[in-house]
């Protein structure tokens, strides 16, 4: 005698589950492609840093190291 728990759900319940699954999948694709379109990230290449900016970063790094050494 087959296990009653293995019985298929009624057709309307199966349809609701199927619709719910594909609604979630479809809405996730919609959100992904409409809120975060690939064109937005296409030209996201690293820009070269100017030498003056590099000096600013180096100075900040050296100051941070000095402060960290004083704290420790």
C-alpha termini separation = 75 Å
Strand content: under 5%
Radius of gyration: 29 Å
Estimate percent helicity. over 70%
Account of the 3D structure:
The chain has helices spanning 11-35, 38-42, 51-71. 71% of the residues lie in helices and 0% in strands. The mean pLDDT is 82. The protein contains three helices and no strands. It has a domain at 10-40.
Overview in brief:
It is built from three helices and no strands. By secondary structure, it is mainly alpha-helical. The chain starts with 10 loop residues before the first helix and ends with a helix.
Helix and strand topology:
Layout: H1 11-35, H2 38-42, H3 51-71
List keywords for this structure.
single chain; 72 residues; mainly alpha; elongated
């Amino acid at each position: 005698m087959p296990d009653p728990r293995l019985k298929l759900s009624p057709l309307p319940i199966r349809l609701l589950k199927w619709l719910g699954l594909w609604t979630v999948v479809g809405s996730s694709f919609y959100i992904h492609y409409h809120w975060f379109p690939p064109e937005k990230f296409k030209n996201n290449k690293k820009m070269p840093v100017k030498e003056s900016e590099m000096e600013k970063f180096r100075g900040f790094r050296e100051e941070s190291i000095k402060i960290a050494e004083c704290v420790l």
